[in-house]
Amino acid sequence: METRPTVAPPESVTWRVHLDRAMWVAGVRALMLQALHPVAMQGVWQRSDFMRDPLQRLLRIAHFVAVTTYGSPEEAERMGQRVREVHSRLEFADPATGNPYRVDEPDLLVWVHCAEVVSYLEVAARAGLPLSGDDADRYFAEQARTATYVGLEPGDVPRSVAEMRRYLAGVRPVLRATPEATQAVRFLLWPTMPERLRRLAPLRPAWFPIAALGYYCLPGWARQCYGVLPEVPGTQAATTQALRALRGALNASPNQLYNQLFDEETVRSAEAARERLAAAGYDTRGGMPRG
């Protein structure tokens, strides 16, 4: 019987990366990178509410990451079951070829997984989270378990930095900025506020710097594909400095204030995780243990 209080132990690299508050930028970067796969982008374009409510999509991803990191094994499996059931019902067609696809096509799931985890790791490291080469290998190996929740096997995804580099090099010729992908990136930079968040509309300008950091954290070839924001000398150095400053500010924010960014379900899951960890002997008086 499963006795672990959380899916991944607090000592894991996964906890160090996913609890870091630079993950907001990493999540935006992941969405922008994922959009460069033309077929995957059509699945999002045709079968999701991304263009109506991109912030809700980001929050759903944040909740999935939270549950599959520090949720209980039972919570994570229930989450995975829901995701697999939804994906199994969604189909779309590639307008360029007319070929039909399911959202849960293995190749598409692998791409989405890789674009996410490589974005999380690279942005966290660039923002100043201390990570060694061995840590990076361990992170990808740990995240192979997360891939099982969406219907993949651990061996389907890269489990080390070297494997991830080979995968990304192999998929690179397929990637391009379609009109839909470019429109999605522009929308991420300046999204329309959904009705339920109209009261926060005056804060919308504060979103742009976060989204712009996500854009400038993309690989150079990806930014060249999009060409949405200007590339001037010194931009990348400024991006690193701004990213580290934002990370410092977010990490210094009180938990009570920071948790207002998440939906109630995610906060409840975190509180339940704290209780399980305390019962297992971890000291959680200062919040979640950070390994």
Structure description:
The protein has 291 residues and is mainly α. It has one domain (13-192, 213-279). Helix content is 61%, strand content 2%. The chain has 14 helices and 2 strands. It has helices at residues 13-18, 23-34, 38-47, 54-70, 73-89, 106-127, 133-147, 161-171, 179-189, 204-216, 220-226, 235-251, 255-258, 264-279, and strands at residues 91-93, 100-102. A two-stranded antiparallel ribbon has the order 1-2. α2 (23-34) packs antiparallel against α6 (106-127), α2 (23-34) packs across α10 and α6 runs antiparallel to α7. It is globular. The model has no long low-confidence stretch (mean pLDDT 88). InterPro entries: MPAB/Lcp_cat_dom (IPR018713). GO terms for molecular function: oxidoreductase activity. Residues 15-246 form the ER-bound oxygenase mpaB/mpaB'/Rubber oxygenase catalytic domain. This is DUF2236 domain-containing protein. Pfam families: MPAB_Lcp_cat.
